[in-house]
């Protein structure tokens, strides 16, 4: 038919018009002839579905919203069938892999099934028709993410189009590491139309099941607890006649923390116990000093070790680090106290009255149940060695050094009580818990 038409044009132009027109027509003819290379038994398919496609798309323009009146809104329903999430806490990027179902009505793509052999649905490539461009507002711009969808769409005779592209969205997500390694992260993705107002393209959720979690798999190290979806109407005072709606999805994820818990939380309790045991010991020999110095060293080693594991970009400090810091200070104070007590115990000068009075008060009051110093035979030996006196002389009257030792005991117990209280407060506030 095309060939006949071209020949006709050539014939007419040869006779009637100038040579330029003839040249143009000749070009057109040549092109037809090249196309005509197809063997004659290969005829163009003309069944109902081919006819339907041809008729639907012959006057279609993919650039415009598919409405007959420009004031009409295209309502696009969105459903996320989420398949996989991954979260990089170091880079603060959250990636969601999902099948996103888009559903809208295209007024220009409807047909009467009776005219086409009762076909009432067909498939079209998404690039052949208008598709909504849903942008991720907090996208990680380092990764190229197109708003355009590329897939095959399903079209029904009343013009309803459904496209389900498989897409990955990467968004920026601030991490909060306060309760590391038992932290729960909220990552929110905001979707909407980049340039169209809500009066032109209105993104909404499917009424039923806006988020589907069938076949969902957790990414490495994180467990998805739940997803909250919310539609923000996007009304601003600047523009009373237009809205900029957004679809907001919040993903609440929990770190799978078995490993970090084993290497961080339990050892920090052990190290605290070490300090406490050291402080409960007598300051009379070097064992206590060695033990508590070892505990301080353990704090250093442990802090360095955690430094490798912990994500360092968080705006807030993980409280386990604050705990270790404070525990380190307590241990350091314990070392100073130990040295001071050792110094007290070696004093040979008679103790001032004040100290003797304090000793007597404690020994006679309820404090004697806490300070078991009077009946410690090794202290006695200590005392004798230090003072160089024989036991006959000191049997009835305590030596001046004994007063110092007893005073050191009282200080030590007092310190232990204070340290235990400090640790109870520290553990209560600073040890992260798995709730
Ligand atoms: C269009 O047809 C589909 C399936 O036949 C139906 O589910 C849908 O409700 C129809 N939509 C309208 C606007 O009539
Ligand atoms: C995380 O999101 C949930 C649901 O929107 C909210 O209840 C919770 O307070 C959020 N948590 C944080 C730390 O923002
Ligand atoms: C868009 O959809 C929402 C409900 O999903 C509706 O409340 C709102 O009025 C719609 N906006 C327009 C402009 O049609
Ligand atoms: C909003 O619409 C009203 C009524 O149609 C009109 O009077 C007003 O000028 C419009 N405002 C803007 C900012 O376009």
From TrEMBL:
GO CC terms in record: membrane
Places the protein is found: Membrane
Topology in membrane: Multi-pass membrane protein
Keyword list, A-Z: Membrane, Signal, Transmembrane, Transmembrane helix
Domain named Neurotransmitter-gated ion-channel ligand-binding: residues: 50-255
Signal sequence region: 1-36
Name recorded for this polypeptide: Neurotransmitter-gated ion-channel ligand-binding domain-containing protein
Main location: membrane
Transmembrane residue ranges: 256-277, 289-308, 320-344, 414-431
Record GO terms (molecular function): extracellular ligand-gated monoatomic ion channel activity; transmembrane signaling receptor activity
């Amino acid at each position: 038919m095309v060939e006949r038409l071209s020949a006709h044009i050539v014939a007419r132009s040869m006779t009637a018009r100038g040579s330029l027109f003839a040249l143009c027509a000749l070009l057109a003819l040549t092109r037809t002839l090249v196309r005509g290379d197809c063997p004659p038994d290969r005829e163009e398919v003309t069944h109902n579905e081919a006819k339907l496609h041809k008729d639907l798309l012959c006057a279609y323009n993919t650039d415009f919203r598919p409405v007959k009146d420009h004031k009409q809104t295209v309502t696009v329903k969105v459903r996320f069938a989420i398949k996989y999430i991954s979260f990089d806490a170091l880079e603060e990027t959250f990636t969601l892999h999902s099948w996103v179902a888009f559903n809208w009505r295209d007024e220009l793509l409807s047909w009467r099934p009776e005219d086409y052999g009762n076909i009432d649905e067909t498939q079209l490539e998404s690039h052949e028709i208008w598709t909504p461009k849903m942008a991720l507002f907090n996208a990680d711009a380092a990764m190229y993410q197109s708003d355009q969808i590329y897939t095959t769409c399903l079209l029904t005779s009343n013009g309803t189009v459904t496209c389900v592209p498989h897409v990955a969205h990467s968004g920026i997500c601030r991490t909060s590491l306060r309760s590391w390694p038992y932290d729960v992260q909220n990552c929110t993705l905001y979707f909407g139309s980049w340039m169209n107002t809500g009066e032109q393209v209105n993104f909404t959720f499917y009424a039923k099941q806006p988020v589907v979690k069938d076949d969902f798999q957790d990414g490495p190290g994180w467990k998805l607890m739940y997803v909250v979806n919310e539609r923000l109407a996007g009304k601003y005072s600047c523009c009373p006649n237009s809205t900029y709606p957004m679809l907001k999805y919040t993903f609440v994820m929990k770190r799978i923390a078995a490993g970090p818990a084993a290497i961080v939380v339990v050892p920090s309790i052990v190290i605290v116990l070490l300090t406490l045991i050291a402080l409960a010991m007598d300051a009379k020999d070097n064992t206590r000093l060695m033990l508590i110095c070892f505990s301080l060293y353990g704090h250093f080693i442990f802090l360095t070790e955690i430094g490798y594991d912990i994500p360092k970009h968080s705006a807030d400090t993980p409280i386990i680090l604050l705990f270790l810091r404070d525990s380190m200070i307590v241990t350091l104070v314990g070392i100073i106290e130990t040295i001071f007590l050792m110094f007290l115990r070696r004093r040979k000068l008679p103790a001032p009255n004040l100290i003797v009075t304090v000793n007597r008060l404690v020994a006679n009051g309820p404090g004697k149940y806490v300070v078991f110093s009077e009946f410690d035979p090794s202290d006695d030996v200590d005392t004798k060695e230090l003072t160089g006196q024989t036991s006959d002389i000191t049997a009835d009257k305590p030596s001046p050094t004994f007063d110092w030792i007893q005073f050191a005991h009282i200080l030590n117990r007092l310190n232990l009580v204070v340290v235990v209280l400090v640790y109870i407060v520290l553990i209560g506030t600073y040890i992260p818990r798995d709730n």
